Amino acid sequence: MDTLLTADLAANSPNYLRRTSTFVDAIHDLPEKESMAPAQLYSTESGRLFHSGRIVIATVGLPARGKTHTSVALARYLRWLGVKTRIFHLGDYRRAHVGPNGDVPEDYFFVNASTSSVLLRNKILKKCREDIFNFLNHENGQIAIYDAVNPLATGGRALSKEFEKHGVHTLFVESVCTDERIIEENVRSVKISSPDYIGWEPEDAVKDYLKRINARIPHYETMEESELHYVKMMNAGQRVVANNCAFNYLSQRIVFYLLNLHIKSRQTYFVRAGTTKDEDSYKADASLSGEGQDYAHKMADTLLAHRESERQNLINHGAPESTALKPLTIWTSTRRRTVETSEYLAGLGYRVRQRSQMSQLHPGVCEKMSEKKIREQYPDEVAKHEQDPYHHRYPRAESYHDLAVRLEPIILELEREQNDLLIIAHESVLRVLYGYLMACSAPAIPSLSFPRDEIIEIIPASYNNQAKRINIPGLPEKLVPGSPEDISMPVPPSEMGSRIGSGAVSPMSGLGTPVLHGSPRRGTQTPEEGEREGGASLALPRRQGPTSEPRV
What we know:
Elements: H1 6-11, E1 55-60, H2 67-81, E2 85-89, H3 90-98, H4 115-138, E3 143-147, H5 153-164, E4 169-176, H6 180-193, H7 202-216, E5 229-234, E6 239-243, H8 249-260, E7 268-272, H9 290-316, E8 328-332, H10 336-341, H11 343-347, E9 351-354, H12 371-377, H13 379-387, H14 400-406, H15 408-416, E10 420-425, H16 427-437, E11 454-459, E12 466-471, H17 527-532
Parallel strand pairs: 1-3, 1-4, 2-3, 4-5, 7-10, 8-9, 8-10
Antiparallel strand pairs: 5-6, 7-11, 11-12
Helix pairs in contact: 3-4, 6-7
Protein name: 6-phosphofructo-2-kinase domain-containing protein
GO molecular function: 6-phosphofructo-2-kinase activity; ATP binding; fructose-2,6-bisphosphate 2-phosphatase activity
Pfam families: 6PF2K (PF01591), His_Phos_1 (PF00300)
């Protein structure tokens, strides 16, 4: 039987839209073979980087300890760097074997299972291992992440020896958790996002999952083998133990990333900065205009009202009246416009941190030049940009690739942050950070749309992140179009009458990417319209209410 992996399940699910929507986390999509990753520094003929050979990362740990979350997060980071990585969830192979509505034997998850259950497990396991070897040996794969419980020490040794015979390193990542609050949060997250529990009543899903956990506990053996390569993460990164992990550069890079990772849930919000008194100058670093100040107040009030509605929703579903959301931290760049956009919230007592790496793309020689002048003086550069808007840079300017490399410390801080997070930044910065969290391809990033009248919320889950948008009401229409610093570039005369939305193409917002015609405006067209336009503008789902979209 053909294996139905998470990518296939996602492709066939009505709750998923494909690559043409910022609604979708593409972490389980298989990357396009020839495309460079957003932060990839170089490519090789073999497709493997850092002279590090092939590695299998095998998870170890009881259910609801964060193994899948860690697997997905690692794959997200490694793919961002350009390392060819694929996740092999053993649960996907089980679901594929028994079918979407099939039941496994009652003792399937028990260590001392019946002979028929053991044979079924071995058959499923064999198929998963075969696919791992096929990926590493025949698809130029470099890192295979084997997401399974792997509860026994003897099994870990056997797994390491099996891969060693084929010249593949094995790095075990064990998730240990003794904090009941974290376990409860993980159970709730798995209940929501796991393919095992689609269509289940929440109470039944929790009971079934806890039953699986209890079946494993008596037989589980933590990793103590000094000869193996392993990282042990305790209580969501509270303590990390690395044993014998310095076998190559990439293994050390993985350990460094895991030191910054935690599995506690949090919300991340993206918003644009307000408009300024000098919209055309990058160097002036102007203060907010009166309209920009009004925008900052309305944005903050909308966000706080949304968070309060989220809190009330938790209470309505059984949480105590004293329930509080996680504290909200605000990040801005050091540019005046983003700092001043955060001042209203800072006055209400919220913590604001300025990050110099979050400054927008530098426009170089294109600053304050008219559209006509740019095409007249730099026709060759315009042509190059149209061919590759992600990697091309104008003279003395930055490319999106430059920005992605510059933002790597921010990405690690993002993984480390435990509070809810509001990021106020230029659209170019939001595109790159959003591209990381939602596993967007490099060519897609320059055309991601962030209208100023919307707050984008990233909702984390174990298998994938989800995005929704929150409308900021009452803004004048002229504030909604694209970044004020963007230098808009002309399109052919036949298209001039149909330019719309927040995305005039430019050196800073995606020059040369197709403009959507005939749809309402960027960020509000339907997924089907995005498909017809070739998927260049990754559109958010259509609004369904005055304040926000329902979660998927």
